[in-house]
Amino acid sequence: MPTVSAGNAQVSYRVDGSGQGLVLVHGTGFGAEGTWGHLTEHFTAERTVILPDFSGCGETTDDGAPLTAEILAGQIIAVIEEAGNGPVDLVGFSLGSVVTATVAALRPDLVRRLVLIAGWTRPDDQYLTNHMQTWADLSGHPEAFGRFGTLTAFSRDFLNILGPEQIEQIRKGNLPSEGALRHIDLNLRVDIRELLPKITAETLVIGCAKDHTIPVELTRELHAALPGASYAEVDSGHVVVYEKPAEVVKLIQDFLHQA
């Protein structure tokens, strides 16, 4: 896969399709392929789909220093400038939502439309703080770390549809990697409230009504901080890209195709 330099990182990314650039940005722990790979075929017929892995995921390498939203945004900016071919449509999930909002604030010239899924703005919500701290505290117990992450990633209804064998497979893939722990550390600190007024791109915010990782109230708060942004809410747990993939794809496509 191609790479591009950004600060202290060599950022790896994948490119598929043709047409206007569409950049899909992943969240905590799981890289671009694990988050978006199963959905890219819905966009590649008319879009150049770009899947970057920021620090902590995939083949991207850096010096291991603590992360900030600005550092990760700089990595996405470098990929857009390298492969985006003009202003792109930018979609972020979870931590990727925080990062893409930062990109849109710092480089509005690079972003045509912006979609923020299951995002948040501030570190001082006590549910979020305790969730992330508990997850980090389980890093010495990989099975418990994976089970906690899986339990809070999906709604109860979806977990019951999956059943024990599939849940166990997901749990085994949810490991306390160095990258995941660096992302969780950032989740505990990140605050983008001062950046949000700088966003000029047309924006869609998507909340997840049954989100046990990022409470939907925090995503609604993100929407409220972006005057003029559209809002949609999906009856889903946090990882809506797997729980309700068709609904997410339709929301993204309908928004991007608006005149």
Which features would summarize this protein structure in a list?
259 residues; Rossmann fold; 8-stranded mixed β-sheet; 10 helices; 8 strands
Please, could you describe this protein's structure?
There is one protein chain. The protein has 259 residues and is of the alpha/beta class. The protein has one domain (3-122, 192-256): 3-Layer(aba) Sandwich (Rossmann fold), CATH 3.40.50.1820. It is 42% helix and 20% strand. The chain is built from 10 helices and 8 strands. The protein has helices spanning 32-36, 69-83, 95-106, 126-137, 142-153, 156-173, 178-187, 216-224, 240-243, 245-256, and strands at residues 3-6, 9-17, 20-25, 47-53, 88-93, 111-117, 202-208, 230-234. An 8-stranded mixed β-sheet has the order 1-2-4-3-5-6-7-8, with helices on both faces. A hairpin with a 2-residue loop joins β1 and β2 (9-17). The N and C termini lie far apart (34 Å).
Give the structure's gist in a few sentences:
By secondary structure, the chain is an alpha/beta fold. The protein has helices at 32-36, 69-83, 95-106, 126-137, 142-153, 156-173, 178-187, 216-224, 240-243, 245-256, and strands spanning 3-6, 9-17, 20-25, 47-53, 88-93, 111-117, 202-208, 230-234.
Number of strands: 8
Rounded mean pLDDT is: 97
Helix amount, in percent?
40-55%
Q: In terms of per-residue confidence, which ranges show pLDDT below 50 for 5 or more consecutive residues?
A: none
Question: How far apart are the first and last residues' alpha carbons, in Å?
Answer: 34 Å
Strand count, sense and barrel status of the largest sheet are: 8 strands, mixed
By CATH reckoning, the class would read Alpha Beta
Number of domains: 1
Under the CATH scheme, the architecture is 3-Layer(aba) Sandwich
Strand content: 15-25%
- The topology string of helices and strands comes to EEEHEHEHEHHHHEHEHH
CATH T-level fold name? Rossmann fold
Shape: globular
Query: How are the strands ordered across the major sheet?
Result: 1-2-4-3-5-6-7-8
Radius of gyration from the CA trace?
A: 17 Å
